[in-house]
Amino acid sequence: MRAGGKTSRAALLLAAFFALAAFSTGQTQDATKDKAPQSPPSNVHPLTPATSAAPADAQTAGSSKYVGAETCKTCHEKIYEGWEKTPHWKTTLDTKGGPSHQGCEGCHGPGADHVAGGGDVSKIFTFKNASTKEINSRCMTCHVGGTQHMNAINSLHTQNNVSCISCHSPHDAKTKEFLLVKPEPELCYTCHIQQKSQFEMPFHHRVNEGLVKCSDCHNPHGTVAAKQVRTSATQDAICFTCHTDKQGPFVFEHEPVKIEGCQSCHIPHGGANVHMLRVSDVNLLCLQCHTNSPANAKTGAAPGTPSFHSQQTFFKSCTLCHSQIHGSNFDQTFFK
Ligand code: HEC
Ligand code: HEC
Ligand code: HEC
Ligand code: HEC
Ligand code: HEC
Ligand code: HEC
Ligand code: HEC
Ligand code: HEC
Ligand code: HEC
Ligand code: HEC
After folding, report:
1. How many whole angstroms separate alpha carbon 277 and alpha carbon 286?
2. Residues near ligand 6 (Cβ within 6 A)
3. What is the per-residue pLDDT across 193-248, written as a single tens digit (0 to 9) for each?
4. Could you tell me the residue ranges of all domains in the chain?
5. What span, in angstroms and rounded, lies between the C-alpha atoms of 261 and 258?
6. How far is Cα 261 from Cα 232, in angstroms, rounded to an integer?
7. 86, 94, 251, 313: which one has the fewest Cβ atoms less than 10 Å from its Cβ?
8. 0.85 exceeded by the pTM?
9. What are 67-94's pLDDT values in tens digits?
10. CA-CA distance, 63 to 42, in Å (whole number)?
């Protein structure tokens, strides 16, 4: 329900930018010695001395350490064939970043010593015992920036050692899209068990039924907002992306909708009350702010209910009369 395509394209553009930046600051030798046949000369950054006699330093040595995915395939054929069907295969075609950003070695690092050692496992990067920081920084050599990932470095998940591969599996994904280790919401419930019961309440967003996803409202890669809650493209409440009729702008706004936010009246996951309201009786909800006796009302706060609003009978159903409770273009008291 979001413009996912746009986000990922932006992310990719940024990734490409960073790849280029890396290229111009040290990957040049790698690129020129890469035997990848697709590598056109135009990929050589004009400002870097690609063909000049560079000293035989670490960089030059490093360049020969990449062997290319086809070599890995000779011994890891099954893994290669699975991997070939994932989006990461595309990195073999993208020569901009040089061999360090391509194929198996884009994630596992240079493989020459591993190959020379007949598969010496101490000579290749494995994710097995790597720290969250190490893992994430590997993935983020390509997946940095963009609205989707710009907060990943310091997200709550990262801080709590939930790494990229807690949720994603490049070789063993269980979903068609996004290489997830499990589909949503099960993925999230492996750790957030408490939320499961909230979505089983009588009135809830249909997450367990597959209609709405956790990631529609949350960005598991982190956000600037609290609780990793997303904001809409216009930096408004994420709720408006689906509940567009509540956004307005209205001639007569009901202040809490825009100021305190939807959560001041609704529980976003689900609850026992109709419309996922925080309070079982609507009048009690309203009276939290619109105090019954105007004498108690704080100055500058919500106006009290008029004295003719006897709380005995039908005045209890506030929204029977004040039906346009999210805002109105016609009536200051939200009758229509
Ligand atoms: C996008 C990053 C990425 C790429 C590209 C990648 N791998 Fe991996 N590889 C991983 C991760 C992460 C693991 C750890 C296990 C997991 O989470 O799936 C792994 C694990 C492995 C393992 C250990 C066995 C296992 O399944 O746990 C082997 C062998 C391996 N990769 C080989 C390869 C080969 C060969 C290629 C190229 C065909 C490749 N990898 C491409 C990220 C990657
Ligand atoms: C000459 C054969 C050979 C080639 C070529 C080869 N490997 Fe391996 N690789 C092995 C063997 C053997 C193992 C150990 C197998 C095992 O433990 O299951 C291994 C293990 C691995 C592991 C897992 C290490 C671990 O601790 O479990 C990774 C990751 C890996 N290889 C990646 C690569 C990558 C990336 C390439 C290409 C750059 C590559 N391999 C090329 C033979 C090879
Ligand atoms: C060498 C660059 C590179 C590295 C390193 C890399 N990726 Fe990717 N990743 C890509 C590219 C390119 C795509 C494809 C983007 C596209 O198709 O728009 C991609 C796509 C993805 C996708 C989206 C898959 C989909 O179905 O849309 C996920 C998830 C992902 N990568 C996770 C990871 C994780 C986790 C790691 C670290 C283990 C990682 N990547 C490391 C380049 C990389
Ligand atoms: C808590 C689980 C979780 C963690 C941790 C996580 N992801 Fe994701 N990721 C997801 C889910 C779910 C999606 C698909 C829904 C979405 O787009 O938010 C996704 C989507 C993606 C995509 C494709 C969508 C896009 O717009 O780019 C990429 C690439 C990706 N993740 C990379 C990463 C990287 C890199 C890390 C580590 C820094 C990471 N993820 C950490 C759950 C996670
Ligand atoms: C591997 C375990 C794990 C997985 C899987 C996981 N999370 Fe988390 N998540 C955590 C931990 C640990 C924290 C930080 C501690 C806490 O506040 O619960 C956290 C924090 C959060 C927070 C912020 C909570 C707060 O109080 O601010 C949200 C929101 C969240 N996760 C959503 C998700 C979503 C959505 C998914 C699925 C796409 C997901 N998580 C998958 C472990 C996980
Ligand atoms: C309709 C939007 C929406 C959906 C769908 C959603 N969340 Fe939330 N979630 C929120 C909002 C908004 C908050 C912040 C609540 C607050 O600040 O009072 C939140 C808070 C949280 C928190 C912080 C603890 C708490 O309860 O306040 C966690 C953890 C969390 N959500 C996990 C999940 C998981 C896991 C899923 C999917 C199973 C999910 N959310 C689906 C909107 C949503
Ligand atoms: C001042 C309290 C309050 C705030 C703030 C509020 N709502 Fe409501 N909302 C209600 C009440 C009360 C009802 C039940 C209306 C009725 O009984 O007819 C309701 C009903 C709904 C409904 C179901 C009926 C309908 O009109 O479609 C949706 C959806 C909804 N609200 C979404 C939102 C969203 C999204 C926000 C934030 C933009 C929000 N609400 C903010 C009080 C509030
Ligand atoms: C991805 C789209 C999406 C997002 C984002 C979203 N909702 Fe919803 N919401 C729905 C759908 C679809 C329904 C209808 C549920 C059903 O019929 O099961 C719904 C129903 C509701 C209802 C109950 C309506 C009723 O008639 O009882 C309320 C209240 C509500 N949402 C509030 C919110 C709030 C508050 C947020 C932001 C925290 C939010 N929604 C974000 C899709 C969304
Ligand atoms: C979180 C506090 C809060 C809740 C809950 C709340 N309101 Fe309000 N309401 C306000 C504030 C603040 C104003 C704006 C006062 C102003 O503009 O001076 C307002 C304005 C109004 C007005 C217009 C008053 C006028 O003359 O401009 C009506 C009518 C109203 N609310 C009815 C309700 C009803 C009915 C409910 C319950 C469904 C409700 N409110 C729930 C805070 C709240
Ligand atoms: C039978 C219809 C009806 C019901 C039910 C009702 N109201 Fe009213 N309400 C009115 C009328 C009529 C006015 C006066 C409108 C005017 O002055 O133009 C009003 C005005 C208000 C105002 C504005 C006061 C001001 O000073 O601007 C508030 C606040 C309000 N109602 C809150 C509530 C609350 C809270 C409930 C539920 C406890 C409720 N109303 C139930 C008919 C109703």
Report:
1. 11
2. 185, 188, 192, 195, 199, 205, 207, 212, 214, 216-218, 227, 229, 263, 268-269
3. 999 999 999 999 999 999 999 999 999 999 888 899 999 888 889 999 999 999 98
4. 4-123, 132-228, 238-321
5. 5
6. 14
7. 313
8. yes
9. 999 999 999 999 999 999 999 999 999 9
10. 19
